[in-house]
Backbone:
C-alpha cells in the first residue's frame, strides 16, 4: 500500500509539473511568434501616430517583483535630445521588433522615479546572473524577450545562448531578431536585480520562491557556489533560514567560508545557528578566532555554548566531527514511544540513524538502529530489543579524542553507519556518522555529500 501511494504521489507530481510547463506562455505558438528582443529594442525609435520620431528607447521598465507570473512592462525610458524621460505603458500602442508606436501624438513625458519592485531590464537584468531552475545552473541573460499577453506587454522569456551574444554584436538589423528556439520561460528562472527598489517582503519572496522552492539543498548549494557575491547574498535573503542552512551544509568548505565572511554578522550567525551542530562547528573552525567569536556572540546562549563545546575538540578527531543531535531512551519504554520520539526529531532526520539506550545514570547500554525500530512490534519493550541485540556484541563506540582514521576502521569492523562518542563514564556525548568520517579521511576527493544522494 505504501509503495503504491508513493508511486501515485510521484505520478501526480509529474502530471502537475507537465501541466505547469504547458501553461507557460512561451509554450504558445502565438507568443513565440510575437517575441520582441529587448536588445533589439534598446536604441530603437519611438514614433507617434503620424509616424514622426519622438525619441529613442534607452531602457524598459518592468515590475519584476510582483504577484504576476510574467512581469508587466510599466513604461519606457526614452531619450529626447539630451533629456531622458519616462513614458508610461498606457501610452504605448504597439511594441514591435526594433520600433515602438504611441497611441497619440500628445505624449505625457515624466521624470522617472522608480517604484517598489520595478527594475530597468537592460541595466539591471540583461547580461546579469540568474538561476535557471529547470536546468539547475547559474547563467547570464544574453537577451530578454517581451510579448503582448492579454492587454499588456510582459516579460516572457530569457535567452542565455552564446549565438545571441554574437547576434548583439552584429548589424542593427540582426539585433532585433529573436531566437525563440533558445528561450527559457520566465517562470523557470530566478533573476537578481540588486538595483531594484524593494517591494513588500512577501511580494519579493513570492516572486522568487515560485521557482526556487522546487530546488533541493544540494542544488541550491551548487547555485550558491556559482553566484557572484551580491547575487549570493540576495538569494540567501530570499530563503527561509532553515532552507538556507540546509544548502550551506552541502557547500564546499572554502565556498562556505567565503559566504559567511561576506554576509552581515547577524545574518551569518543565524544561518550557522540553523545548521546541524557538527556542520556548524566545521564551518566555524574555518574562520579566524575573531570572526568565530563575532558569530558566536550573536547566537542564542544555549546554542553558542553547545558549539563552543564542540570546538574544544581537535579537528580530525571523533569529538571534532560528531553531531550532538541524539535520540535516547530507557529500557522501560516501548517501541511505539520511541517512534514518537523519532517523529518529533524529523527536522534532524539526516543526523539520526539509531537510538541510544541509557541506564538510570545516563550510561550507554545499547544502540538500536532505525531498521530494528522499524521492524519491531509497537508493544515490544526497549529492554527486549537490548537483550536481543546483545548477542551481536556491544554498541560501537569511540572516545572524543579518537583519530578519525581509527574511527573509520572501527566503523568498518562494526559494519555500522555511525559510532557513538562516549566519555570515560560511558555517557554519550554525540554521534559520528559515516559520511562525516569519509569526508574527513578522503579530503582529496572533496565532500562526498551523502545527504545529496539520500534526498
Residues:
Amino acid at each position: 500500500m505504501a509503495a503504491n501511494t508513493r508511486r501515485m504521489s510521484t505520478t501526480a507530481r509529474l502530471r502537475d509539473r507537465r501541466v505547469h510547463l504547458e501553461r507557460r506562455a512561451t509554450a504558445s505558438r502565438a507568443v513565440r511568434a510575437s517575441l520582441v528582443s529587448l536588445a533589439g529594442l534598446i536604441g530603437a525609435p519611438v514614433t507617434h501616430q503620424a509616424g514622426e520620431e519622438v525619441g529613442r528607447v534607452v531602457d524598459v521598465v518592468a515590475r519584476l517583483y510582483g504577484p504576476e507570473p510574467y512581469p508587466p512592462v510599466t513604461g519606457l525610458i526614452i531619450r529626447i535630445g539630451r533629456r531622458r524621460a519616462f513614458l508610461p505603458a498606457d501610452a504605448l500602442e504597439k511594441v514591435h521588433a526594433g520600433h515602438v508606436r504611441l497611441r497619440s501624438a500628445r505624449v505625457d513625458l515624466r521624470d522617472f522615479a522608480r517604484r517598489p519592485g520595478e527594475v530597468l531590464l537592460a541595466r539591471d537584468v540583461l547580461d546579469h546572473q540568474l538561476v535557471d531552475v529547470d536546468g539547475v545552473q547559474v547563467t547570464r541573460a544574453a537577451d530578454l524577450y517581451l510579448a503582448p499577453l492579454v492587454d499588456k506587454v510582459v516579460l516572457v522569456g530569457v535567452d542565455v545562448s552564446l549565438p545571441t551574444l554574437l547576434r548583439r554584436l552584429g548589424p542593427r538589423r540582426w539585433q532585433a531578431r529573436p531566437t525563440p528556439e533558445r528561450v527559457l520561460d520566465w517562470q523557470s528562472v530566478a533573476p537578481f536585480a540588486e538595483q531594484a527598489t524593494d517591494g513588500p517582503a512577501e511580494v519579493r519572496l513570492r516572486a522568487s520562491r515560485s521557482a526556487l522552492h522546487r530546488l533541493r539543498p544540494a542544488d541550491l548549494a551548487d547555485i550558491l557556489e556559482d553566484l557572484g557575491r551580491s547575487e549570493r547574498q540576495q538569494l540567501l535573503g530570499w530563503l527561509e533560514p532553515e532552507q538556507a542552512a540546509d544548502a550551506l551544509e552541502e557547500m564546499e568548505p572554502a565556498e562556505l567560508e567565503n559566504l559567511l565572511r561576506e554576509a552581515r554578522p547577524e545574518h551569518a550567525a543565524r544561518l550557522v545557528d540553523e545548521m546541524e551542530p557538527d556542520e556548524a562547528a566545521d564551518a566555524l573552525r574555518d574562520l579566524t578566532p575573531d570572526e568565530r567569536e563575532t558569530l558566536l556572540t550573536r547566537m542564542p546562549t544555549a546554542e553558542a555554548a553547545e558549539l563552543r563545546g564542540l570546538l574544544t575538540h581537535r579537528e580530525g578527531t571523533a569529538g571534532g566531527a560528531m553531531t550532538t543531535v541524539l535520540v535516547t531512551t530507557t529500557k522501560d519504554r516501548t517501541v511505539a514511544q520511541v517512534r514518537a520520539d523519532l517523529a518529533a526529531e524529523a527536522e534532524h532526520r539526516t543526523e539520526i540513524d539509531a537510538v541510544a539506550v541509557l541506564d538510570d545514570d545516563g550510561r550507554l547500554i545499547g544502540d538500536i538502529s532505525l531498521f530494528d525500530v522499524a521492524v519491531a512490534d509497537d508493544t515490544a519493550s526497549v529492554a527486549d530489543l537490548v537483550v536481543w541485540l546483545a548477542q551481536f556484541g556491544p554498541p560501537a563506540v569511540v572516545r572524543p579524542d579518537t583519530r578519525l582514521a581509527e574511527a573509520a576502521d572501527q566503523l568498518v569492523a562494526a559494519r555500522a553507519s555511525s559510532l557513538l562518542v562516549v566519555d570515560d563514564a560511558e555517557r554519550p556525548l554525540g554521534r559520528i556518522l559515516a559520511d562525516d568520517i569519509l569526508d574527513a579521511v578522503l579530503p582529496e576527493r572533496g565532500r562526498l555529500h551523502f545527504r545529496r544522494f539520500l534526498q
User: Anything to note?
Assistant: The mean pLDDT is 82. Residues 32-191 form one domain.
